[in-house]
Amino acid sequence: MIAWLRRRLWRAALADPEFLFLLDEPPTDEAVSLDCETTGLDPRVDEIIAIAAVPVIGSRIATSLRFEAVVKPERMPEAGSIKVHGLRRRDVALGRPMAEVLPELLRFIGPRPLVGYYIDFDVRMIDRYALRQIGTRLPNRRIEVSALYYDRKYGKAPPGTTVDLRFAAIRRDLGIPDLGQHDAFADAVMAAMMWVQLRDMAARGQRLKREGRRDATAAPLGA
Q1: pTM of the model
Q2: What pLDDT, on the 0 to 100 scale, is given for residue 82?
Q3: Fewer CB in 10 Å around end: N or C, the chain?
C-alpha cells in the first residue's frame, strides 16, 4: 500500500510525462552502478561536474555500455575539490550543462535499481537537478554497498568491534583492484564489483573474516 501511494504521488509530481518510464518494472536481475564527482559535499549548493553509470546484468559488469559525461557547472570548482577529483576548471568548461545531460542519464538508467558507495549522496545531487527539470526526485531503488559489506563482516559482531567502512578498506578486503578513486567511471566500476561479490557471498551465506581487535572506534560512511 505504501509503495503504491509513493508511486501515485511521484506520478502526480512529475512535470514531464516523457519520464513515466522511470516507474516501469525494472528488467530482471539488472541494476546500474552510479557515481558522481562534485564541486563539494553539500547537495544544496554544490554541483555535479562528472557522472558515470555502468550497467550490471546478472553478474556481468557491462563497461562497454557505460554512460559518462563531464558537466559544466554554473560555478567553477575550487582548488580544494580539484585536488580530490583532478578535474580542472578548463576541463569542466568543455563539459555540457546538466540540463542537457540529465535527460540522457535518466533514459540510460531507466527504472533499474541504483548501486553505489554512499549512493544517497549521489542521488541527492541528481535530485537537485531532477526537481528543477522534471518536477520530482528519482524513484529508483537504491543499493548501498557499504551496508551490504557491513552485513557480511560486522552484522554479528560483538559490541565494541572496530568498524571500517571506508571505500578503500572495503575494496582491499574484497580483493578488488584499485582503478583510481575519485574518478566517476572507476568508482562506479569498483562499486559494481563490490556489489557483485557481496551479493554472491550473501547468496552462499558466506561472511568476511573480522580481525581480533576490539575497541570503541568506527569510521563514518564515506570517510
Answers
A1: 0.90
A2: 59
A3: N
